[in-house]
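Worked Example 4.2. Consider the chain below.
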Amino acid sequence: MKPQDVLSARLQMLIEIALHADCDCEDTLAEQDERAREIGIVGVEIDAARSRKSFDIHALAAIRLSCAIQMGSAQEVQEAEAQAYNVGLTRADIQAIKAFIETIK
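Applying the procedure from the previous section yields the following structure tokens:
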């Protein structure tokens, strides 16, 4: 199953923004902002994602898991996965997040 079959476009975009939070390329950030706004993500949500946060508990868990995977710490990944399960993400969600991250590295 493809990540886009499980994860909403909104969640994919929030994860992408969070994973590129340290990007210094103004063109990349502007392009992300434009794509995010096209799917209904407002400025404050974009800012939160760039701070690796979210107002939505499920999105926050997905962002934390994504960032832990990107950082490569097995312990942080394990903790983030446990948190994701605790807030209601499923095994399919977590697998989709992991697959999605591979598409944007």
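The helical segments are 3-6, 9-19, 26-38, 43-50, 57-71, 74-86, 91-104. The two ends are 19 Å apart (CA to CA). Compare this with Example 4.1 before moving on.
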